[in-house]
Amino acid sequence: MSPRIAVPVFPGTNSEDETVRLLRDCGGDAELVHWSRASHLAQYDAYVLSGGFAYEDRVRAGAIAAHDRMMDAVVEGARGGKLVLGICNGAQILLEAGLVPGTASARKPTAAFARNAPYPHFVCRHAFVKLVQPPSRSPITAGLAEDALVPAWVAHAEGRLAATPEHLDEIVRGGHLLFVYAHADGRVDDAAVPNGSALGCAGLVNREGNVLAIMPHPERDGWNFNHLDRRGEGDVLAPSGGAALFRSFVAAVS
What we know:
CATH architecture: 3-Layer(aba) Sandwich
CATH superfamily: Class I glutamine amidotransferase (GATase) domain
Helix content: 10-25%
Largest sheet: 9 strands, mixed
Number of strands: 11
CATH topology: Rossmann fold
Oligomer: single chain
Strand order of the largest sheet: 2-1-3-4-11-10-9-6-7
Distance between the termini: 10 Å
Shape: globular
Number of helices: 5
């Protein structure tokens, strides 16, 4: 029996269907787990928290969902070594739950994804994120190449990494900064950062490497039909682009 991947659905989650679809297209045994079935989550082998606006992003994005009983199984699973991937709102939830960067105890966050800067507006644009640690830093990225560029879509109003200077230093020294925003040619500079994120951060990993929080949506760049230049090449439903991260995740789970 292949490992089972749960995609938890909180009130307000809205990217769950494409997340499950891409996980399946990349070979994963994935299914949705509605908040009414929270007690079933412990039965799964890995978790992907998808994008949306859990609990309407009240207080702060992800702050309420981080304390939902759905997260009890995710926290315990992460502590036991299960792989956890959070995308956009899922990433915000992981930081609010203290699982990433994981420099304190669970549900004691040391960093957050705050309002975009310099303008606190919702940003929607195509982007690239660059792997800035060795792929082996996390099982989730072990299937990627060194310095891999992953295409994705930025779609958030609260994606700016914010932490105290001391915690930002801790993030850098601990190798928690896994992905940064980059240009299509791999260059990294302030112009590539769409939201004022500290360190140019697009993704963080915990100390053990089994929990990854990434702000842009790779699943929105996940199939040939998402790319005008590939629509005439073979199967338009074939995974491509941002699917690279999903393939690597599924391979690690398997």
